[in-house]
Write a structure and sequence with these properties.
Length: 253
Amino acid sequence: MKKINILAISIVLLSASLNVNAQIKLSDIFKKVTEKQGTAATSATGTPSTLEIGQGIKEALQIGVSAGVDRLSVKDGFLGNLAVKILMPPEAQKVEKTLRGIGLNKLCDNVIVSLNRAAEDAATEAKPIFISAIKQMTLTDATNILLGNNNAATEYFKRVTTSQLMEKFSPIVTTSLSKVNATKYYSDLTTQYNRLPLVKPVNTNLTEYVTQKAIDGLFVEVAKEELKIRGNLSSRSSTLLQKVFGYADKKKI
């Protein structure tokens, strides 16, 4: 009987010891998690260094540029986006109206679709140019962008990439226009129009027009991404972005 009592007491003591140890371990784990959360919260606040601002802006812009370019460089990236869809050149809009009025809708549609396809094709080449501009950005540029207007990054890109984009896009657009039959469709359209009596012949530099429209579309999408990361807290996907843009929020209050 005594042996049974001793065994029972031993089990109770062992159980109590295990419970205490478990509680201590759980307490340690909880303490570490709490400390980690506190450290993370602290690191996401405060005043970022100039280096952190530079790194944060570059991280944000790489995310934004990639997202914006990726949206445009797929089928219907331009054609399906009303904000950037390429319409008939201004001097040809009268042509379009006239030809649609006599039932040549398909001819006009072919031109518009092909112009957008050419821009979508060219957009695939934009990302390396933007990424290069981001890498070359100075810390002063980064600070000015962070604390500047909501389109400060977009304006920076316009300033430093437009000439490179024009140079890079022009031959691509020329090739793309032929590949998607835009040149042929547009020639068919203007030929049909120029045959009409008493009309002024229309001539358009399609490469120049589509190149400029493609670049304009890229900047529209970059601007969207810039606004998103400035105004949408959930878009700040890292501690660094939270700290840098949180600091910018405070400075603008």
